[in-house]
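Protocol step 4 of 5: obtain the predicted structure for the target chain.
Materials: sequence only (see below). No template structures provided, no constraints applied. The aim of this step is simply to have a reference model before the mutagenesis design in step 5. Sequence pasted as it appears in the construct record:
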Amino acid sequence: MTTLVDSSALTELSALELAHRIRKQVVSPIDVVAAHIARIEAVNPALNAVVTPTFDLARREAQAATDAIIRGDPLGPLHGVPFTVKDNLDLAGVRSTCGLIPRADHYPDRDTTLVARLRAAGAIPLGKTNVPENCGDYETINLLFGQTNNPWDVTRSAGGSTGGEAAIIAAGGSPLGIGTDIAGSIRLPAHFTGIVGLRPTSPSSSSLPQDGIWPPLAGRLVNLNAVGPMARRVEDVALAFDIMRAMPVQPLDLGALQGERVAFWFDDGITPSSNAVRAGIRAAVAALKRAGMLPINGGPAARRFANIGWVKYLGDAERQAWAAGFGNGQIWSPLEEIGRALRRRPRIATGALVLWTAIHYGRLVPRVNGADWRERLRRQVHTLIGSGGVAVCPVFPTTAPRHGWSTWQSILLNSYMTWVNLAGLPGLTVPVGRSAKNGMPVGVQLVGAPGAERTLLAAGLVIQQVLMPVWHGPLPTSNRPRRRRVP
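Step 4 output (structure tokens):
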């Protein structure tokens, strides 16, 4: 089997194209995996995105995948294609920490079901990617591994909590990844790094189980969280989503968008968005209008202050489960952790502590019913787009900010994202270009009716074909290490 493509060029290809070339024996899984390992080794010192590499495992599986091709064995849709896994999802025999010091030596004995489905389709794991402690921050930083940097500008945030995954995909170290989204954790990093990220409907159907996830999902946390794929191209996310839900791989139906509504708005109803974000939304809506969709300018009123509804949707059992996540099963008090931080003996980074404290004491907000807020959001979105339409709106008011932003600003700005989780709706981030002001990526958020993921993906593909027909990633990243460790 002869490689006809420069190994460095392999890391610029989509997962779908890699799978096609492997099946046609243009390239071998050995070459593909080697190219991505080399890319990770080149960029990771500056990014700190992959925290537990599984390169030896990947090389063994690449050899086995190549041998299977030579034997003429049946091949899965992702045969020989590498992928990465967020460090709160179990990968058998590989350290799974969720960024927590108490879980530094946790080695699960089985894969998370959705990871197992990707592997059964032939995908090869390259390693685990960085997260904030307990997935509890919009900035990817923890006291165990340090900070993850944005490949477009290492002084800027890669977002959280799936920031390590987004950073390494954008940098070309992985063509495909898997993350979780309980309050924007897939969509925000995808926007900050210029990739595609899907948060499916929650609670998920039985075909999208949420086992093998940390922190433990108790009660209504299951209704807020979702596991989803991330990649540089919409078609890769669509392929992975079909595999993850154990469904036949099918092409997206762009014709189904014809005559459906596309509602759009530019902010969270409180904080205005930047010119770059507003321009991105207009461009995305224009692309969908050309595809036959009917634009409607207006958004759900209940998106305002949705972070309060998100917090009030949780009960004592959910808050205890979240607290126990920080202590690997032992319930830690946020007040105790604040005291430890003041004595310079922290066990978790400041951003995660601030967000956890807000969640813990948010229960004291009077006369707010989170369940009613959830239903109100769902009704308002349905009124806007029905069952077959799409909403186009911001993921965040600006492009990726400088490091440290989340410590205080995230509490004020997370309604841009959390309203989708509170409503339990599917959301998709799609890149639409780069800011003329700072050169950073700009993404838009597409939201649909419950179970309408393929509608979102079809709309995302239309936007990609018009605005991002060719993937252009960041320039080579400096190898200067930036592994800041802060309390």
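Step 4 remarks: Residues 29-47 form the longest helix (19 residues). The chain is about 40% helix and 15% strand.
Proceed to step 5.
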